[in-house]
Amino acid sequence: MTDPVALLQELVAHARRAGADAADAILVSGTSVGVQVRQGRKEELERSEHNDVGLRVFAGTRSAMVSATSAEPNGFGRLVEQALAMARVVPEDRFAGLCERSAPDFIDGDGLDLADTAEPGIEALTERARQAEAAALAIDGVTNSQGGSAGFGRSEIALVTSAGFSGRYARTSHSVSASVLAGSGTAMQRDYDYHSVVHLADLDDPARIGRHAGEQAVARLNPVKPRTGHMPVVYDPRVSNSLLGHLAGAINGASVARGTSFLKERMGTRILPSGIGVVDDPTRRRGLRSKPFDGEGVPTAPLVLVEDGDLHSWVLDGRSARQLGLASTGHASRGTSSPPSPSTSNLCLTGGIVSPSQLMADIVEGIYVTEMMGSAINGLTGDYSRGAAGFMIRNGALAEPIAELTVAGNLIEMFGRLQPANDLSFRRGTDAPTIRIDHMMIAGA
């Protein structure tokens, strides 16, 4: 394949010659393979390949973006013609433009170790999926399977701007999962587990994933509804990251600029208890969302968003930064068919000093949430309401399973009462430890 950076440089140069005041182009190519096994038999095999290119052009304060599923130079003329024709008729946007903080040179991802040389074949993936499902089915009480799965993917991203930036990096992914059912008839319960990593050497044992999925499904049998009332809620790490996701949405520069964030007036103030921080680090080695540059060619760097409970920064791309009179934080994210927008990378919540068992020790009656469904979040007020399932906490220990309940509150108040444990691990891209929040409203029986 032709050097993707050279291809994009040719495309951008073509756009400039055709009359664009500025331009940038992105190419995303990749291959993915996935296998699903059910009841020990290979049920699904998928393989996909793509090689997509996107071009953004600027005509004064107007801009447009077009994309194609082929990066062949003989189609560049048509692509440029379409983009410029669109740019000349769309409304003006005084905040549009290439990001001023983009690097004027070449950047690659060599220091981040994002590309594994191991590439498993179909049989290796099939065996991994079989091991996960078999371990789950071996758990007493598991009665059926929704399948074990394993996958591999490799992608490459290249970006070029007319301001002189060019960059390229590759990333790989390995994954394994299992989903099973326990019980029978209308009393069945489902649960799952999965793991996804950049390097195969870091992937959990498939049997461990399967066993945990099976054990969790059996533990959820015969759930009851909790009573309605106010009580402490403890979020398991596989759902606590949703709270961090709500926080990320509220400090997203686009939301703040539109005035649709409940935290828009809180910059420089305390939003979390003292000692707690929120950090976004796109430079984490082997990180699930690591990258050497953002979608506008800005070199990435760790960013402290919340320090000792105080809000220090929004998450900004070039456009939202101009709207707010600030500088981009290097958090532009984009695809080939959409313009950049602010987005986090490897986001985590830090500051927990006690174990999960210590965090729950004084709870006489509370809720331990392991699954959430539905979402009613008011971005303007922070009002929060979500369906949940999990276990009762009684006298500091997990007790009977519960389901069909709603957890409600206000995110501003919830963030202020948030208590993290010390079990943070990096497994999902957006990661938080076990989290406790007192005085939540529970709607149950």
From TrEMBL:
Belongs to the peptidase U62 family. It comes from Lichenicola cladoniae. PANTHER family: METALLOPROTEASE PMBA (PTHR43421:SF1). Gene3D superfamilies: PmbA/TldD superfamily. Residues 228-444 form the Metalloprotease TldD/E C-terminal domain. One of its GO terms (cellular component) is cytosol. Pfam families: PmbA_TldD_1st, PmbA_TldD_2nd, PmbA_TldD_3rd. GO terms for molecular function: metallopeptidase activity. It comes from the Bacteria. Residues 23-87 form the Metalloprotease TldD/E N-terminal domain. This is TldD/PmbA family protein. InterPro entries: Metalloprtase-TldD/E_C, Metalloprtase-TldD/E_cen_dom, Metalloprtase-TldD/E_N, PmbA, TldD/PmbA_N, TldD/PmbA_sf. Residues 118-221 form the Metalloprotease TldD/E central domain. GO terms for biological process: proteolysis. Residues 326-349 are annotated as: Disordered.
